[in-house]
Structure formats: C-alpha cells, structure tokens
Amino acid sequence: MNTMIRVGLGSDIHALVEGRRLIIGGVEIPFAKGLLGHSDADVLLHAVTDALLGAAALGDIGRHFPDTDAHYQDADSRVLLRAVRDLLAEAGWRIVNIDATIHAERPKMAPYIPQIVACLAEDLRLSPGCVNVKAKTAEKLGFIGRGEGIACDAVALIERDAELHDA
Ligand SMILES: Nc1ccn([C@@H]2O[C@H](COP(=O)(O)O)[C@@H](O)[C@H]2O)c(=O)n1
Ligand SMILES: C[C@@]1(CO)OP(=O)(O)OP(=O)(O)OC[C@H]1O
Q1: N or C: the chain end with fewer CB closer than 10 Å?
Q2: Which cofactors is this protein said to need (predicted)?
Q3: 62 is in an annotated binding site
Q4: Is the CB of 108 under 6 A from ligand 1?
Q5: Which residues of the chain have pLDDT under 50?
Q6: How many CA atoms lie within 13 A of 61 on its CB side?
Q7: What is the pLDDT of residues 118-162, one digit of tens each?
Q8: Complex-level ipTM
C-alpha cells in the first residue's frame, strides 16, 4: 500500500486586551489580559486548525466557521479543532505530527506547555510524542514585543493511502 503525505501551514494573531480570558492550546492561563476574538480566540488552536485544513487542501478556519455566524461567537476552539479532525478522518487522512510556535512576550508559556501538548494530543487522538509546542518572545520588538498581541505558527503533516487520491 503506497502512502501519500501532505504538509500544511497555519498561522494566527489575536490582540491582547483587558477583560478577556487568556486561552492558549485549550488551557486557561492566569494573566492580566486575554485574547480578543469572535470565538475564545485560542490563537494556537486556530493555527493548528488551519495547518490541518491546509494540509488536506480544505480551505481555512474562516471558511468552515465564519466569524459572521453567531453560532461561533465565544466558541470553544477545541470543538472547532475536533470538527476539523473528524473532517480529515472522513476523507481518509491520518495526522502524523504537529509542531507549533507561540510568539508571546508574556506570559511565560513554559509551565503550561505539557498541559497544552496533552490537550492537543487528546483532541487530535495522537500520542503526545507526535505533538510539539514551543514559545518564543519577540525580544521586545514590534506588537508582540510590546505585549499588544500573541501570534502562533503551526505545521501539520498528514498521510493517507494513495489509492484514496481523488476518491
Ligand atoms: N512567552 C514565552 C516565550 C519564551 N519562553 C521560553 O523561553 C525561551 C527563550 O525565549 P526567547 O524568545 O528569549 O528565545 C524559549 O525557548 C521558551 O522555552 C516561554 O516559556 N514563554
Ligand atoms: C474562529 C472564528 C469564528 O468564531 O473567529 P475568531 O475567534 O475571530 O478567530 P480567527 O482566528 O479570526 O478565525 C476564524 C473565525 O471565523
């Protein structure tokens, strides 16, 4: 059986504002500010969701969950990610691995990384060894360095049986 592999890239940015909870990778992080968005603004899960959709050539998060649809207001991004996981599975795709980088001046993400990895692994039904999450500051440069927002980049590798191509 031949295997076909595809790679996908996802990125996202949300502004940090007062009066919002900070949720990154499905984990609520104690911080003075949170990310602004139509949903829970989980910048990491949105980047991973886009990486998966990109790999499968299925568009992007906004196409599947429009921010003009009240149904997704304050949505739990884990629910959106699981829906995309199921969409890929229905098309015969298996997720091989995920790698992601959170760009945040603060808070310090390191203490939360194991919980975030566990959360992603659970939602994607992967072993934790197939999920990697990193964090970088912006060395005080630009909007991230000023603490005005947080960005995330993610890549996803997926595979399926080549016989399913164009099925
Ligand atoms: N929000 C962040 C940013 C970084 N880290 C950890 O610190 C290391 C050094 O970051 P630099 O941006 O100074 O290179 C980085 O490798 C992370 O382990 C973090 O926990 N939270
Ligand atoms: C997730 C959606 C939908 O609630 O809204 P936001 O939380 O604003 O996030 P974004 O990263 O702009 O992704 C697409 C949106 O459609």
Answers
A1: N
A2: a divalent metal cation
A3: yes
A4: yes
A5: none
A6: 28
A7: 999 999 999 999 999 999 999 999 999 999 999 999 999 999 999
A8: 0.89
Please tell me the total count of domains within the chain: 1
Amino acid at 85: R
Rounded distance from Cα 137 to ligand 2 centre (Å): 23
Atom of ligand 1 nearest to the CA of 110: 20
Is 46 marked as binding a ligand?
A: yes
Whole-number pLDDT of residue 164: 73
CATH number of the CATH domain containing 134: 3.30.1330.50
Residue 165 and residue 167: Cα distance in Å, rounded? 5
CA of 158 to the centre of ligand 2 (A): 23
Dihedral pair phi/psi, residue 76, rounded to 5°: -80, 115
Domain that holds residue 87: 3-164
Q: What is the dihedral of CA 8, 68, 30, 46, to 10 degrees?
A: 0
Q: Is the CB of 41 under 6 A from ligand 2?
A: yes
